[in-house]
Design brief:
There is one protein chain. The chain has one helix spanning 79-82, and strands at residues 8-12, 27-32, 41-46, 49-62, 65-69, 86-96, 100-101. The chain is mostly beta strands. The chain has a single domain (8-99), classed as Ribbon (Umud Fragment, subunit A), CATH 2.10.109. Strands 1, 2, 3, 4, 5, 6 and 7 form a 7-stranded antiparallel sheet that branches. The protein is globular and about 35 Å long. The termini are far apart.
């Protein structure tokens, strides 16, 4: 059996869209190429905004990508406005300011 290591990258969260799970200024680890599951926090981009990366919560797989939403419904630009997103990776850990696992929401 072979173990495939997926690339991991440190990211800085900007904006209030994932509050209270993540806050502006949090540093997280994202595992690129990991298969998302509903309820997980993911790094995405939209076809209409290819230069913008966003951290959102995966809701469900849909035709054309994933339907994703921010935890803060009053401060999030997400699939409700932009449609399905391409998931680039899954956010697994917060490094700073409160280190720990980023929990899946059922």
């Amino acid at each position: 059996m072979t173990t495939r290591l997926l690339p991991v990258r440190r990211l800085l969260v900007r904006g209030p869209s994932m509050a209270p799970a993540l806050s502006d200024g949090d540093t997280v680890l994202c595992r690129f190429g990991a298969a998302p599951r509903p309820g997980e926090v993911v790094l995405v981009r939209w076809a209409g905004r290819p230069g913008q990366l966003s951290v959102k919560r995966a809701v469900r797989a849909v035709e054309g990508g994933w339907w994703v939403l921010g935890d803060n419904t009053f401060g999030s630009t997400d699939s409700a406005l932009l449609g399905p997103a391409e998931v680039l990776g899954v956010v697994r850990w917060r490094l700073w300011p409160r280190p720990g696992r980023v929990r899946r929401k059922d």
